[in-house]
């Protein structure tokens, strides 16, 4: 019997999307603390709407940082600088609702309830890691291509290659598969904010004839169906038009829906929060399974109890693409205790701003991708 054919779709969003603006501010706050205090405990949430930016959460750190300056600089870097728009770096009002971390969490994370005062998990929860050999990045092809389109849109905007481009955008790529093998891209959907002086036909031509061939590379073909700004104009965007909140793009941040997700967001959280560090470590371990030839595709699940160092459970799934028992034995050699994961991946560095946009996985230079 021939493997069945199907289409799988993944979405990415730009750095100017309201939710990603919030993620970037939160990770900028995190990095500012870790740069001076690697032991800082940071859980920063951000909301942006209109001319308002709200910072909230729990932060315990030996250093004080200028949250207002950090937020304005982050907004400026993204590209929201137009004073005629309600949301702009110099014009927003920033409110802060930040307190210290709860003492009960500090006790658990500090290790006082574990043998030898070993660091415990910062919260309960389940995390997943995934890898597949269908791309050089060991990532699902649809999310890789969706991110590439978004990244190139941003590059063209920042370099003024297309001066009508504005910061807010979404990309979506559909790929035809046979079994677990990608055959080709069937359709591309792009919604991009733009200035009022550009024609919609020009935007479509730009996407289909300039952006897509470069971003999709060998996966580009004349048979791809392109849909661009299906609601016609996209003049109002970003937090001026829509509310943004941290942690609302968790599927775009990970595997584009091709793998399970435990529900925990990443941005604004220091690595004592296993939502972040264990998801990164699961990805690291999953990559090693594929690189060692134990499976073509693998998903790892790990679960934690707050304050305890040793995971509650660890599961390995190879989807019939390899030797599951060998893969399980291999993964069980990795140390999933919080302190061990942090040390193995050197996670107490201010590296998190560069993870915020276009996916936390499949990109060079990140320790869990080595």
Description of the molecule:
- This protein has 370 residues and is α+β, with helices and mostly antiparallel strands.
- Helix content is 30%, strand content 24%.
- It has helices at residues 18-36, 67-78, 103-110, 141-158, 200-216, 250-253, 274-291, 324-331, 338-345, and strands at 5-13, 41-49, 52-60, 93-99, 125-132, 165-178, 181-194, 225-228, 244-245, 297-304, 313-317.
- The strands form 3 sheets. The protein has a 4-stranded mixed β-sheet. Strands 4-3-2-9 form a 4-stranded mixed β-sheet, covered by helices on one side. Strands 5-10-11 form a 3-stranded antiparallel β-sheet.
- It is flat.
Major sheet details: 4 strands, mixed
- The CATH topology annotation of the domain at 5-12 and 141-237 reads as GMP Synthetase, Chain A, domain 3
Order of helices and strands: EHEEHEHEHEEHEEHHEEHH
Number of helices, where a helix is a run of at least 4 consecutive DSSP H or I residues: 9
- The CATH architecture of the domain at 5-12 and 141-237 comes to 2-Layer Sandwich
Question: Compute the gyration radius: what is it?
Answer: 21 Å
CATH level-1 class of the domain at 5-12 and 141-237 = Alpha Beta
Helix content: 25-40%
- Overall mean pLDDT score? 95
Q: How many angstroms separate the termini? A: 38 Å
Question: Could you name the ranges where pLDDT drops below 50 across 5 or more consecutive residues?
Answer: none
Task: Work out the strand percent.
Answer: 15-25%
Specify the overall morphology: flat
């Amino acid at each position: 019997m021939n493997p069945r054919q199907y289409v799988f779709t993944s979405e990415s969003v730009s750095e100017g999307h309201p939710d990603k603006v919030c993620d970037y501010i939160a990770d900028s706050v995190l990095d500012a603390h870790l740069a001076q205090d690697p032991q800082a405990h940071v859980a920063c949430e951000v909301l942006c709407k209109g001319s308002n930016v709200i910072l909230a959460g729990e932060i315990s750190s030996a250093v004080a940082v200028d949250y207002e300056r950090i937020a304005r600089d982050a907004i400026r870097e993204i590209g929201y600088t137009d004073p005629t728009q309600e949301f702009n770096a110099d014009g927003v009002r920033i409110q802060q609702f930040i307190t210290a971390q709860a003492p009960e969490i500090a006790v658990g994370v500090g290790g006082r309830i574990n043998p030898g005062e070993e660091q415990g998990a910062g919260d309960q929860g389940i995390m997943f890691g995934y890898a597949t050999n269908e791309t050089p990045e060991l990532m699902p092809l649809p999310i890789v291509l969706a991110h590439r389109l978004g990244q190139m849109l941003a590059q063209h905007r920042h370099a003024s290659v297309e001066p009508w481009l504005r910061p807010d955008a979404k990309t979506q790529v559909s790929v035809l598969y046979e079994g677990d093998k990608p055959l080709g891209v069937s359709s591309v959907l792009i919604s991009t904010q733009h200035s009022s002086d550009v024609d919609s036909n020009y935007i479509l031509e730009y996407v289909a004839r300039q952006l897509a061939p470069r971003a999709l590379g060998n996966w580009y073909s004349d048979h791809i169906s392109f849909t661009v700004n299906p609601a016609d104009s996209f003049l109002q965007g970003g937090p001026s038009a829509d509310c943004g909140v941290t942690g609302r793009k968790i599927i775009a941040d990970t595997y584009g829906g091709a793998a399970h997700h435990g529900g925990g967001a990443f941005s604004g959280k220091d690595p004592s929060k296993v939502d972040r560090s264990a998801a990164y470590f699961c990805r690291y371990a999953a990559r090693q399974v594929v690189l060692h030839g134990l499976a073509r595709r693998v998903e790892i699940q790990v679960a934690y109890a707050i304050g305890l160092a040793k995971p509650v459970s660890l599961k390995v799934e190879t989807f019939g693409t390899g030797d599951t028992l060998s893969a399980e034995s291999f993964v069980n050699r990795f140390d999933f205790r919080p302190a061990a994961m942090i040390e193995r991946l050197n996670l107490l560095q201010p590296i998190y701003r560069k993870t915020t946009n276009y996916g936390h996985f499949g990109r060079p230079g990140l320790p869990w991708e080595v």
